[in-house]
Amino acid sequence: EYIGWAVGECGTIMKSVNGGYLWENQSQNGCFDLLAVSFPDVMNGFALGSNDSIYITTNGGTEWTSSSFNNPWFIQMKDIFFVDHLNGWAAGNLSSVLHTEDGGMTWVSQYANTFGVINLGQIFFINDQTGWIVGEEGIILYTEDGGDNWSVQTSNTAYNLESIHFSDQSNGWAAGENGILLNTTDGGDNW
Questions:
Q1: Average pLDDT over residues 74-94
Q2: What is the pTM assigned to this prediction?
């Protein structure tokens, strides 16, 4: 599809319907940074705010409402990912992983088995059960039960990883510091 969104400083939300050739401003009031955006379909979207909030749209970004993570520890979340209009995850500093099953209205903590305190970055799920999270020191976390259990996959790098994407359950890529680019063809058993 040719529809996409980008977010940034001071509540900036931009939408393109032609593959990025032209962009429409859908920005929000207030000067808070938006760190990530996830649209599981063209109508339902979620933007992660630096102010411990999540912004939700059900009409393709025309209107946005805010909700809070109710994060008593004030841990900065870095990324969000939704597989549909109800099921989503957030990941961030101090090995934090949160999950929602009601479209971001309530969040529960999931245990990230990082064997220490690691700042986590980008999340990617291919369905509501199978997903990955990357982070500092080459960490790659994997779940096949919707995040009830996370296990560490060996990345063979100590560089911080910042991005991950899978085209299907087997083929994926992770990228990070110093131009590191990892590839797997077996769901992350080998990188």
A1: 92
A2: 0.91
